[in-house]
Design goal:
homodimer, eight-stranded parallel β-barrel
């Protein structure tokens, strides 16, 4: 299994530094963020990736279909732009977050319908551009503000109802590790796993947004998870994505080195 | 639907003040905590409850079957003591938390087996004392440190495998509100719902342990949830349990008054 590095693991670097350092440390695949690519310039990013022969495992992130304060057609336009960016970058997948509850709403059912209708509307465009959309269930602690899609089974239910070779899921260890249905859901997902992301979870989760640990430092059984996605047929890069105020306060060179050192043995153990 | 007040909503009061204030504000049912009852004296608490004609909706809390640093027989002894206390208090249910991952373990499957074996071992004693055990699924953010039982369906699976009129579940809105299977699970639970607890969830959850809101102040569709448990046959008290550093910093009289004022309309709406 190949390691990919998500740029939010070392966000203090600009794209120039991030790509150069990944290249220098032997990383061949990266996960990029739209805002950062836009700031850096899409064509310039594409040229640098090409020159360094770096693959893009994911482009993060589009979706947010429940943003009630935005015109749905503006959400759709921005999502089409994300598809265009993913196509230009040759990203293996464009990560979709469902979005949280619309402002002032308590209706999860309605919000989940908005997500599904939004994906249904975006999908033909993604198919035409040959971009794979990867719906990412997020940890239930982020249900209200980020994603009303919380479990892998729930994401797969959406994918089942919108069958397409261009629609799949993300399995992010932090978001799904606790799920008693996880192992069955990974098997159910099979070839529809478009992205696997790893980080770790502390014993006591004080900050659901930025309280993650480097892979191997926490309670998640990552070898079992990586073994399960491999058994389901996943052969692409495993992305290290660590939102962590603790790690972000350290020197990015050290974080990058530690992330690689701690993740590689897990990938080997699972292979 | 009748309101019950859990003492951890206003933890700055000792039991004397808590019981007196509940009585004065027309509350007829309370949720109590073991440590506080033990400190106050069990017999003294029983006498005061009797004198004020207050019911006990729940005694919190026993279980913690995964505590690997404790001798299992000590865990069992403490849980039997909890059953004795619940019997003495006439509590409608004794709340069981499964416990988190044993120290140093990443094996959720093994931990969940420990929980089930622990309940199986405790159940005959609870039956003899006629104490109802209520297994409480906790929010996935608390999986590692508090409860490897995260969803209502998962708790019901355990209850299914250990059929007894003395084993059921707690439906705590904060812990389960996000679950896409919630409505089906409540229907499935039916008469096995032994306790219903309410609080609310902010849009952004900064503190999974103590970041709750008063009922009605957040994103949870509490009228729908209360309607669902009523439809499942639940007729007992609905307990207000708000772990909130924000509320705990306020005068307890105000918190009690606000909790009642905000919860009563929700109970009426659901009736």
């Amino acid at each position: 299994m190949m390691l990919s590095m998500n740029q939010m693991t070392v966000p203090s670097w600009g794209l120039d530094d991030f790509l150069a350092r990944c290249d220098q440390t032997g990383i061949r695949s990266v996960g990029l963020w739209r805002e950062r690519v836009q700031d850096h310039g899409l064509e310039r990013t594409v040229a640098q990736l090409h020159s360094l022969r770096l693959d893009v495992s994911t482009l993060c992130r589009a979706g947010f279909f429940t943003a009630s304060d935005a015109d749905p057609s503006i959400v759709e336009l921005d999502n089409r732009r994300a598809v265009d960016e993913a196509a230009a970058l040759g990203a293996s997948a464009l990560v979709l977050l469902g979005g949280g509850l619309p402002t002032g709403s308590r209706n999860l059912t309605a919000a989940r319908t908005l997500v599904e209708r939004g994906i249904e509307q975006l999908l033909p465009y993604a198919e035409r551009r040959d971009v794979r959309l990867a719906l990412e269930p997020l940890h239930p602690a982020l249900c209200a503000d980020r994603s009303v899609i919380s479990t892998l089974d729930q994401a797969l239910d959406v994918v089942d109802r919108l069958p397409s070779a261009h629609l799949g899921v993300v399995v992010d260890a932090f978001h799904v590790w606790w799920d008693p249905q996880l192992w069955d859901a990974i098997e159910r997902a099979g070839p529809r796993i478009f992205s696997v992301q790893v980080s770790d979870h502390p014993v006591v989760l004080r900050d659901p947004l930025h309280g993650r640990l480097l892979p191997g430092a926490g309670v998640i059984d990552l070898p079992r998870l990586l073994g399960a996605v491999a058994a389901a047929g996943y052969r692409e890069a495993v992305e290290v994505e660590v939102f962590s105020t603790e790690q972000w306060a350290r020197a990015p060179d050290r974080v990058l080195a530690d992330a690689i050192d701690q993740t590689q043995p897990l990938l080997q153990e699972a292979s």
